[in-house]
Amino acid sequence: MNTNVFRNLSYGVYVVSTLDKERPTGCTANSIMQITSSPATIAVSLNHDNYTNSCIQKNKKFAINILAETSDSSIIGTFGFQSGKEANKFDSVSYSMENDLPILEDSCGYITCEVIDTMETSTHTVFLGKVLDGDVLKKDPAMTYAYYHTVIKGKSPKNAPTYLPEEEEGSSEKWVCGVCGYVYDGNVPFEELGDDYKCPVCGQPKKVFAKKKV
Ligand code: FE
Fold first, then answer.
1. In terms of pTM, does the model score above 0.85?
2. All structural domains of the chain with their residue ranges
3. pLDDT (tens digit, 9 = 90+) per residue, 62-114?
4. How far is the CA of 26 from the centre of ligand 1 (A)?
5. CATH number of the structural domain 173-213
6. Which residues are near ligand 1, the ion (C-beta closer than 5 Å)?
7. How far apart are CA 175 and CA 181, in angstroms?
8. How far does residue 197's CA lie from ligand 1's centre (Å)?
9. Residue 153 to residue 203: CA distance in whole angstroms
10. Are the CB atoms for 49 and 60 separated by under 8 Å?
């Protein structure tokens, strides 16, 4: 089977948020789609290992935050490459509360949902959510997964439904972020970048980069 065919499926880039008791938490996701329009329902697929999954099972509610091409790309790293079990991910972003759910300010808009059904697969839970409310926050184009992959040069974390193993290693050595897998390809040699350089995808400092064959 040619698994590259999966790369032709289109996705967006979202942060799925909920509450862990009183504490806002969430994770980056791309397997989200609207299933019906009247009543409006949304399906979201989240890995069992994802802390947000267990929080939604308890809270029975979640919000979809739709990232824009202009959203700060470090949001993807903040919500995608660390666990909400240890980190208070919302500490580093501006947010408000709608329907008792945390809503990112730096996005195209949000949709709040109440869980009406779930389906378990061996690795992921598919949550079916009845839409409670939603609003457009800015008119910039929504970020697609293709934009994230080709323009921001981001990767899928291993527990994403859309994760594909990297193709065979090549022969060129590049500086690679040890947290999110971003490959540095700027014009300035990596060694000459200032110590304040941060990974544009996950916001981690220069010291987490290592030279790897890519
Ligand atoms: Fe990174």
1. no
2. 11-150, 173-213
3. 999 999 999 988 898 889 877 888 889 999 899 999 999 999 999 999 999 99
4. 18
5. 2.20.28.10
6. 177, 179-180, 182, 199, 201-202
7. 9
8. 11
9. 14
10. no
